[in-house]
Write a structure and sequence with these properties.
DNA binding, 434 Repressor (Amino-terminal Domain), Transcriptional regulator, mainly alpha
């Protein structure tokens, strides 16, 4: 079964118009280094950072901890909201923050 890291790596590679082999050459990786993640392998911290920098995404996105690629995508989403939706988002965030403060 393909893991979230591999699925996102494959999608970003496709979006870039490059192949795994081309990216491996550019980053100085051994041949098939990226394809080897298909079976559930996890990259080292250094490799995770290198790949995140290469694709200009958050490392947390690559490993499935966040659903968005980068901060700009969050900002773009917020900008596209109506004023009413922005107010609802603000109130939701405020409520969430207050609940966290009460827990501490």
């Amino acid at each position: 079964m393909e893991n979230i890291f591999y699925l996102r790596l494959k999608a970003l590679t496709h979006e870039s118009g490059n192949s795994f082999n081309q990216i491996e050459r550019e980053l100085g990786y051994t041949r098939n280094a990226l394809a080897n993640y298909k079976n559930g392998g996890v990259p080292s911290g250094i490799r995770l950072m290198e790949l995140a920098n290469y694709f200009k995404v958050l490392p947390d996105y690559l490993i499935g901890k966040v659903p968005f690629e980068n901060v700009e995508s969050i900002e773009n989403t917020f900008v596209s909201l109506t004023n009413k939706q922005k107010i609802e988002m603000y109130l939701l965030c405020q409520k969430w923050i207050l609940s966290r403060i009460k827990e501490d």
